[in-house]
Structures are given as C-alpha cells and as structure tokens.
Amino acid sequence: MGRPKGTGRVTTSVTMSPEFFALAKANHIGFSESMRVGLSVAFAEKGIKEYDNRLNIYRKMLFFQKKTEELSEELEALKLKLNKM
Question: Structure pTM?
Fold first, then answer.
C-alpha cells in the first residue's frame, strides 16, 4: 500500500535519557509513534483545537474542579477569620 502520494516526511533526531530509551525498547514503543503522540499532547496543552481530545478536556476539567475546591476552602477560611474580628 505505501504512503499516500504527495505526503512528505521530515527526518529529525532527538536526545533522550538512557532510562527513556530502555523503557521504550522494553515496552516495544516505536520512537516515531511516541514522537507523534507526544507532539499531539503538547499541541493540545497549547490549546490547538484539532489536538484537544476528550482526555485532555477531562484532565483540564479535573484541574479546574480541584482549583475551584481549593479556592472555595480558602474563601471559607477567610470568611471565618473575618467573622472572628
């Protein structure tokens, strides 16, 4: 089958720790695939909509939920402190 006509490829090199290299090899993780997955996660974290999948949206939701709970607790503590004055 091969790759579609007209699609180019870029060859690049990356440097990684020996631990990452060994873990990738031991777990049969291809370096090209891991680069694509890693870049798509980085793109999603930068807010590029085409890469912002449901998992990333869920992670953001959990982050903001936790932040809201922390701020709510902080607000309640300040209210208690204010009432004691």
Answer: 0.50
